[in-house]
Task: inverse folding
């Protein structure tokens, strides 16, 4: 097979640039771009890509609509959804049209390359490293009645892990299944298990056993497994479909079923989602009301915030690595923020002398929102952009109340000055000095400070139930 | 005499919110709070003997030096081995906590922190 054709669909110029930079490092891919769903469909008809990296939120035609049209015409094209929203209902909907592979923002460069390499290798049909055995002794703790063969992958390096990823992908690709959309998550989990095992110098194997209906994928290690937090959270998603025992981790996956895509089913899903949304809103309203009745108000941390606060990355990216892959125009835009830092200080001193509601709102629009727009162009800093955007909304909402309270004005000005200095340091360490070993060194902390500032100004307590109790050792 | 608490965090905003949370303890003279933005500066001052503390509060992710590496360096020094050191971070992974525990860290608190819980914990540790 000649080069594989990879189409990158994203409405943001910078996002396309970043994805291109990441994919350029892969061998054997020819890459093209499209700026929205309409162009993606057009390019697909003339160029017929093998793989599409599809942004979901786009103007004109979104990623879901475009994927639906493309999958109907070309069911073999592999579509990978690129999204910041992790919503099981959206995933169910995508699964119905045959999209089961995801890349979540903020993106993990290594994981993207790993997925594309695995899929690419599978498409090229270059199998290797598999051994078929005939011994019928079940290793998995789920089911001893397995068929008479096993597939064993000796995980000695990233390449052998890729053999496994490509094998698993091949089992599910293009089957338009509803039975299991967990194989993509399984690929991620086993990849992370390998990364953890590799760090600890473990000898690892993956043994796949199967019954008529299910695959049992068991990873074996030398020693008892102590899971990293993120892994343990991911495995929880498998519920009873996963077992961990001493030195093995086993996941059970339903084999793919062929399901025809019917418009009505999708429509039904849409109706269910809107029903659920109404229910969720009603529940939130009730919670809110209950809280307000209580003596002490609490600044509740919702699930999206919790996720951004505790996000972790498999590989730490250094500032040097990050900048080397970033487009020049993006860097320029970030460096231009130096002028906004001046505005930040300038407007705060205006507010100090004239703390009107209008001036607080002006700070939100002229400073915070400009920062949000610039940081939004960077895939990796979702938490930072989200934090600033929430702060901007909060400032506008509270401008009137704060402007009438001299204590709060003073406090908010000081805290905003500190936040501004933190952002200046962030730009310095990542984009100018490039001296940090982890580009995400401040994201969560910054977000946490913004939440805390909101709580202070609102006279509330930030509380995460038991999560923020001091844990004594 | 006021107990000396040092907080090391690369974020000015975190230090400012901690100062606000501990405001009452500071104003009533129970504690004196000193802050460091760069863990290397603190480590240097402690090693040279020009700095000392009754309780150290440290972040984990800092550009110059990881808080757990800082804790390891401090805890290997006989002068500070038995002094309380708490970690205040957004990191909540059990694996990292385990590392902290092995180093000899006193406690682990997750950001965003509750003012009340921070004050309560400090009072327990300092016995005030």
Result:
């Amino acid at each position: 097979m000649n080069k594989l054709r990879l189409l990158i669909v994203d409405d943001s110029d910078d996002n396309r640039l970043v994805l291109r930079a990441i994919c350029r490092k892969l061998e054997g891919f020819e890459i093209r771009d499209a700026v929205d769903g309409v162009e993606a469909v057009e390019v697909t008809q003339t160029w017929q890509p093998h793989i599409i990296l599809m942004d979901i939120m786009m103007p004109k035609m979104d990623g879901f609509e475009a994927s639906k049209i493309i999958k109907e015409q070309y069911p073999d094209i592999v579509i990978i959804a690129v999204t910041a929203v992790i919503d099981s209902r959206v995933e169910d909907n995508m699964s119905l049209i045959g999209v089961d592979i995801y890349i979540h923002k903020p993106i993990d460069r290594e994981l993207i390359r790993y997925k594309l390499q695995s899929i690419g290798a599978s498409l090229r049909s270059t199998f290797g490293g598999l051994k078929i055995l005939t011994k019928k002794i079940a290793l998995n703790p789920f089911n001893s009645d397995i068929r008479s063969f096993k597939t064993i992958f000796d995980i000695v390096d990233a390449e052998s892990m890729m053999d496994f990823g490509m094998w698993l992908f091949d089992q599910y690709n293009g089957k338009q299944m509803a039975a299991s959309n967990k194989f993509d998550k399984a690929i991620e989990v086993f990849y992370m298990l390998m990364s953890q095992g590799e760090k600890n110098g473990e000898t690892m194997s993956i043994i796949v056993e199967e019954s008529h209906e299910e695959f049992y994928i068991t990873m074996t290690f030398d020693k008892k497994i102590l899971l990293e937090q993120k892994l343990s959270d991911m495995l929880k998603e498998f519920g009873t479909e996963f077992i961990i025992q001493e030195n093995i981790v086993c996941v059970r996956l339903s084999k793919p079923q062929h399901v025809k895509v019917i418009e009505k089913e999708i429509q039904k899903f849409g109706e269910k989602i809107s029903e659920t949304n109404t229910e969720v809103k009603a529940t939130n309203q009730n919670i809110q009301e209950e809280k307000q009745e209580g003596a002490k108000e609490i600044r509740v941390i919702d699930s999206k915030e919790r996720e951004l606060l505790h996000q972790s990355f498999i590989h730490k990216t250094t500032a040097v690595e990050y900048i080397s892959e970033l487009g020049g125009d993006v860097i320029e835009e970030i460096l231009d923020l130096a002028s906004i830092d001046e505005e930040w200080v300038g407007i705060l001193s205006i507010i100090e002398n004239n703390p009107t509601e209008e001036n607080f709102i002006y700070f939100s629009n002229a400073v915070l929102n400009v920062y949000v727009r610039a940081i939004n162009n960077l895939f990796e800093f979702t938490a930072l952009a989200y934090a600033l955007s929430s702060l901007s909304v909060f400032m506008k909402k509270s401008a009137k109340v704060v402007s009438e309270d001299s204590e709060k004005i003073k406090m908010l000005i000081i805290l905003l000055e500190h936040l501004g200095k933190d952002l200046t340091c962030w730009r310095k360490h990542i984009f100018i000095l490039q001296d940090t070993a982890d580009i995400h060194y401040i994201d969560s902390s910054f977000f946490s400070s913004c939440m805390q500032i909101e709580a202070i100004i609102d006279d509330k307590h930030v509380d995460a139930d038991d999560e923020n109790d001091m844990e004594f050792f | 005499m006021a107990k000396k608490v040092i907080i090391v965090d690369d974020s000015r905003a975190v230090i400012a919110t901690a100062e606000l949370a501990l405001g009452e303890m500071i104003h009533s003279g129970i504690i004196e709070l000193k802050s460091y933005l760069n863990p290397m500066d603190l480590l240097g001052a402690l090693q040279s003997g020009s700095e000392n503390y009754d309780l150290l509060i440290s972040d984990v992710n800092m550009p110059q030096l990881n808080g757990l590496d800082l804790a390891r360096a401090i805890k290997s020094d006989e002068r500070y081995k038995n002094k309380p050191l708490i970690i205040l971070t957004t990191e909540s992974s059990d694996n990292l906590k385990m590392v902290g525990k092995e180093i000899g860290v006193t406690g682990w608190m997750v950001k965003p922190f509750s003012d009340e819980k921070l004050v309560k914990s400090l009072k327990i540790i300092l016995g005030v």
Observations:
- Chain A touches chain B through 49 residues (CB under 8 Å).
- Chain A has three domains: 1-125, 127-261, 299-463.
- The first strand of chain A starts at residue 4 and ends at 9.
- The CA atoms of residues 402 and 409 of chain A lie 6 Å apart.
